[in-house]
């Protein structure tokens, strides 16, 4: 994994701009990505495990929150593309600060276009991001909240060593709260 910083002298914890894995480029979200990521976030097929699917307007509000996370903390969710075709966004994912039952955590999330499913991209992206987060922000635990019905995402988390911590309601549905 290669991590590329935006300027000499920066630390990974202060300004993360890119992570390259064996097959993927993970890079900071940009304003130019907004409509693609909003469409992905609001796509009915990618929302099939959500109790309440995201609307386009709701997805835009989330994108604004994600951009704010970047501005305030120097990291957040990342656009994901294949190294051999970096202009095509296949998904997004990463970690961002979240409050969970009064505890500050890093919430791991990922969402990919259906054409990218089944290729191991979520596992590859999440492994790189979790490695970065645990190295650079070790005092904040990385968690994953996954709807009980979302078996593909549960398998991704399990491959990364996440275990069920609790089972409780999250966003209106029975969910697994997973930690490493």
From TrEMBL:
<dbReference type="InterPro" id="IPR051531">
    <property type="entry name" value="N-acetyltransferase"/>
</dbReference>
<dbReference type="GO" id="GO:0016747">
    <property type="term" value="F:acyltransferase activity, transferring groups other than amino-acyl groups"/>
</dbReference>
<protein>
    <submittedName>
        <fullName>Acetyltransferase</fullName>
    </submittedName>
</protein>
<dbReference type="InterPro" id="IPR000182">
    <property type="entry name" value="GNAT_dom"/>
</dbReference>
<keyword id="KW-0808">Transferase</keyword>
<dbReference type="Pfam" id="PF13302">
    <property type="entry name" value="Acetyltransf_3"/>
</dbReference>
<dbReference type="InterPro" id="IPR016181">
    <property type="entry name" value="Acyl_CoA_acyltransferase"/>
</dbReference>
<feature type="domain" description="N-acetyltransferase">
    <location>
        <begin position="24"/>
        <end position="180"/>
    </location>
</feature>
């Amino acid at each position: 994994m290669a991590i590329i910083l935006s300027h000499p002298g920066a630390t990974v914890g202060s300004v993360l701009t890119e992570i390259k894995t064996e097959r993927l480029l993970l890079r900071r979200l940009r304003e130019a990505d907004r409509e693609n990521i909003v469409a992905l976030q609001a796509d009915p097929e990618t929302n099939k495990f959500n109790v309440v699917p995201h609307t386009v307007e709701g997805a835009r509000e989330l994108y604004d929150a994600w951009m704010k996370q970047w501005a305030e903390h120097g990291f957040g969710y990342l656009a994901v593309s294949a190294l051999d075709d970096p202009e095509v966004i296949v998904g997004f994912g990463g970690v961002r600060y979240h409050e969970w039952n009064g505890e500050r955590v890093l919430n791991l999330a990922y969402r990919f276009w259906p054409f990218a499913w089944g290729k191991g991209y979520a596992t590859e992206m999440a492994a790189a991001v979790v490695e970065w987060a645990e190295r650079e922000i070790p005092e904040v635990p990385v968690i994953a909240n996954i709807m009980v019905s979302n078996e593909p995402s549960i398998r991704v988390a399990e491959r990364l060593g996440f275990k069920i911590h609790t089972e409780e309601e999250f966003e209106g549905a029975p969910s697994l709260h997973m930690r490493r």
